[in-house]
Design goal:
This protein is mainly α. Among the domains are: 85 residues, no CATH class; 74 residues, Serine Threonine Protein Phosphatase 5, Tetratricopeptide repeat (Alpha Horseshoe), CATH 1.25.40. The chain is built from 36 helices and no strands. Helix 1 packs antiparallel against helix 2. The chain is elongated. The N and C termini lie far apart (84 Å). The N terminus is likely disordered.
Amino acid sequence: MRLWLLGRQFSSFPTPTFDLLSSSKLTHLLQICSNSRALAQAKQTHQQIIQHGLHQNQFVITKLVQSYAECDHFGYAQKLFDELPEPNVFAWTALLAFHSRNGLFIECLQLYAAMRFMGVLPDQYVFPKILRACAQLSALETGAMIHKEAIVCGAELNVQVCSSLIDMYSKCKDVKSARWIFDNMAVRDLLSWNAMISGYVLNGFLELALELFGSMTLMGVEPDLVTLNSVMDAYCRMGLYDEALKVFGNIAHPSVVSWTTLISGYSRFGNHEASLRIFRDMIKTLVYTSDLDSLSSAVVSCRHLQALRNGQEIHAYGMKAHSTRVFYNSCGPALLTMYSKCSRVHDMRNVFELMDKFDMVTWNAMIFGLVDLAMGYSALETFTMMQIVGVKINQTTISTILPICDLKSGKQLHAYIFRNNLVSVVPVLNALISMYCKCGSINSADLVFFNMPVRDLVSWNTMIGGFAMHGKGKAALQILEEMIHLGLTPDSVTLTSILSACNHSGLFTEGLKIFHSMSKDFGLVPTMEHFACLVDMLARSGQLNEALAVVTEMPILPDKHIWGTLLAAAQAQHDMEVAKLAAENLVSLEPKNAGHYVTLSNVYTDDGRWDDAMRVRKLMESRGLTKPKGSSWIWIDSQV
């Protein structure tokens, strides 16, 4: 019997000559076909089986089913499987493996249910394939049922089964069960350690992941590339980039995943310059094409940096490295929003045209880009077209479009939310409250807030901000009291909104009390926005000297908004000394802003200091600055 060698190049299968053709020789031959995924040779072996009358041998045909399935020829595998009078667990396993390997997870579970209905007991080779399907579908209940069946069948101690259980529970967010499996394993292999470490990282238990990695190394288990990538991911998610780079440096041959982990990690935490630098290093180093995730992360960094040239270069590189459909389906949304940030509407539309129009992500990205460009009319048109095409709207769509809606279209979306049972989706209701507040319907916003089954901190902040916007300071204070009573701790945004509400409602005493209690009661350090509110409150209440004292004693340097607030108050109260000080600081902060020179000159003029006013005018002229001209804008049918 002539066999071909694995790894050798051959043009056709050498027809074997058999003196005594045995099933064992054929099954060995088919196993080689399976291992090398040699479909043409599997077909030739199939022909020999038929010629020698072994097509009725169930053992041989089962092996043939396995070969066709491993060669991804499901049609032949299914046809032969259907002809088996009583398919055994090995035949079922071949089909289950095909479905699991090719991402047909629902079909995989359905096939498993059929196998159990036929009374075939699963073994240790079946369970990892079914558990992988459960993990990918986040089907916790089904996975737990499969776990029970593994115990009944005596496979719960198998290392591969345990690793699959850890992976399944982790991806279904049941980390406690995953750790229980891990702790009760009699023997652990590298796959088990990797499954538990990556499970911790996936669910945000980053310190536990690093602690487990330390235990692994203490026990003498040598980490592999998968381990180091997971550890690097944990460090990136914690913002510990130096440690992540140290791990990366210990990898002899970094994979695309290794590079992508660093790129996406830096991008996710806002270090976009480093993200792009690492992306360039990857392109120079790798001998194979970068993956789509790394391209998307790099484009996101270009968006935040408004680095149009770099974004265009990555766009061109991606088109060369990947097929058009695959590239745009993966990186299209990031490209679209990048061009939006760079105000390239024509490029946005070109990318949009090449994206999948039946994917809601495509439409959401386009709507988001148009909203970001303040092209509200076009965004609403795109939203309408999305509905005409028949693409399902999700919570991201609604949350994106609501901020630009007028009251009429906002109410229509409110009805849609009600009809489609989205009344418990917190981000959607938060956007709805914000829309009603901006459109002047504060009572409708309050009603939505009151009827929310669950509220997050954004919900409370949005409602407080809405009351502040409408000058309802007492209502805002009442919401704050209720929030604190329920055990929620206000954040910086909450305090900015409540201070603004007090300021615009004339509740100066309450506002000052809240400001001075920020550190003591809530553990918050006042920011520039909080000081701006405080200065404005003091100035509005006629306490200009106290406002000036706050400005001069601030632990951070006052910005132009604070000096501008002080200037306006000083001019209103005819305090020329404070006005002069504020105007001089504005000139110092923004020396190229001609308006500040004009204001300072006018302050000197009002105080009768004509020489100083002339000096400021000459200084402005010597710096090549001119007084800004007034202009008006008229909008007709959404056009300027």
